[in-house]
Amino acid sequence: MRIYTDEIINAICLHIADRKGVQPTDVEAQLSWEEEYGFTAEVWVSGRSQYLIEANLIEAIVQYMYKQYNKRVFPEDITIDAEDDFWADIRE
After folding, report:
1. 21 three-class SS
2. Number of C-beta neighbours around residue 89 at 10 A
3. Distance (Å) of CA 43 to CA 13, 31, 40, 63, 67
4. 74: Cβ contacts below 8 Å, ≥ 6 apart
5. Is the pLDDT of residue 35 over 90?
6. How far apart are CA 70 and CA 51, in angstroms?
């Protein structure tokens, strides 16, 4: 299975909203890739920003897959990649 940028962003927003006790619509996220840091996301909640590393992104995808698709996946089953767009391959 493969999910793309929009679903990865949704996963991050839902995950952060749950952790911070806010509505998902109160969370904004932007994905990026840098050679030095790999895949990251900058997340804004209530005007404050924080950076998430790839492990955090994978954690959000794991939770998203369980809550939205009722599928139990493990971090080692997820590979994030990018070319013109971001995507995550999820081994089932």
Report:
1. coil
2. 12
3. 8, 9, 10, 17, 21
4. 62
5. no
6. 28
Boundaries of every domain in the chain: 2-90
- Kindly state the tokens that stand for 11: 């996963």
Are 2 and 51 contacting, i.e. CB atoms less than 8 angstroms apart?
Answer: no
* Segment holding 61, helix H or strand E: helix 54-69
15 touches 63 (CB < 8 A):
yes
**Arithmetic mean of pLDDT over the chain:** 95
Residues 6+ apart with CB under 8 A from 32: 39, 40, 41, 42
Model pTM greater than 0.70? yes
pLDDT in tens, 53-87: 999 999 999 999 999 999 999 999 999 999 889 99
The residue type found at 89 is D
